[in-house]
Write a structure and sequence with these properties.
Blueprint (H helix, E strand, L loop, with lengths): L18 E3 L16 E4 L3 H13 L6 E3 L17 E4 L8 H13 L8 H20 L3 H9 L8 E3 L2 E3 L13 E6 L2 E6 L2
C-alpha cells in the first residue's frame, strides 16, 4: 500500500484515512507513484462523493473501493462509475433464493427502492429463527442450542446473503462478502460469489 504524502498534488486531501492502494499480486513490489489501482475509503456515501469530486478535480481518475457504507453511491452517476463497493449482499446476485426474495420484497413494498443488505440480512435471520423455533420450541436453552448447532452439528442455513454457519464462538466466520462494481448507474457483482 502507498500512503500518500499530505501535500501531494495528485492525492486529494479530503480525509486523513484515505489510502491509494496498489494491486497485491505478489506483495513484494513496493508501491510507486502512478501505479495505484484504486482509492480505498473507509467511510460513507457522502464522504465517497466528496473524495471522488476532490480526486477528479486534481486529475486523479482511480476508482474508489469501500464497504457497505458506500451503499447508494451508484446514484452519483458518472462520478461513481467504476467504483467498487463490498457488502454482505447485493440485490443483483443471480440465485434462485435471491430472485424469490427480491420478488417478494417488491410485492410487499412496491413503492420502495430495491432491498439492501440490512433488508436481506433481516429476511435471512427471521427465516433462520422461524426454522429454529419450529425445531426447538420456545425454551431459551433449547433454542440457543439449536441455533448454535447451525453449521456444526446441523447443516448451514442457506439464505439470500449466503450460507450462515456459526462457529464455536457464535460467529459466522465464512459469511460471504460480495464486491460490486458500479457500471451504468447500478452495482454489479464482480467477486465474492
Amino acid at each position: 500500500m502507498h500512503y500518500p504524502r499530505r501535500r501531494s498534488r495528485a492525492v486529494p486531501r479530503v480525509l486523513p484515512a484515505l489510502l491509494i492502494v496498489t494491486a497485491c499480486s505478489t506483495g513484494s513490489t513496493p508501491a510507486r507513484r502512478g501505479t495505484s489501482d484504486f482509492i480505498f475509503l473507509g467511510g460513507n456515501r457522502e464522504e465517497a462523493e466528496e473524495t471522488l469530486r476532490a480526486a477528479r478535480a486534481r486529475g486523479v481518475r482511480l476508482p474508489l473501493l469501500g464497504g457497505d457504507g458506500l451503499e447508494g453511491l451508484e446514484v452519483a452517476g458518472p462520478l461513481a462509475e467504476g467504483s467498487y463497493v463490498s457488502s454482505g449482499y447485493l440485490v443483483g446476485i443471480d440465485t434462485p433464493k435471491n430472485r424469490e426474495f427480491v420478488q417478494a420484497y417488491h410485492l410487499k413494498h412496491p413503492a420502495a427502492p430495491l432491498p439492501n443488505q440490512p433488508a436481506a440480512a433481516t429476511y435471512d435471520i427471521m427465516y433462520l429463527l422461524q426454522r429454529a423455533i419450529a425445531k426447538a420450541g420456545t425454551d431459551p436453552q433449547s433454542l440457543r442450542d439449536t441455533i448454535s448447532a447451525i453449521g456444526g452439528a446441523a447443516p448451514p442455513f442457506e439464505g439470500v446473503t449466503g450460507a450462515i454457519a456459526f462457529d464455536e464462538n457464535g460467529d459466522v466466520p465464512r459469511q460471504r462478502v460480495v464486491v460490486g462494481r458500479i457500471q451504468s448507474g447500478s452495482v454489479r457483482a464482480v467477486g465474492g460469489l
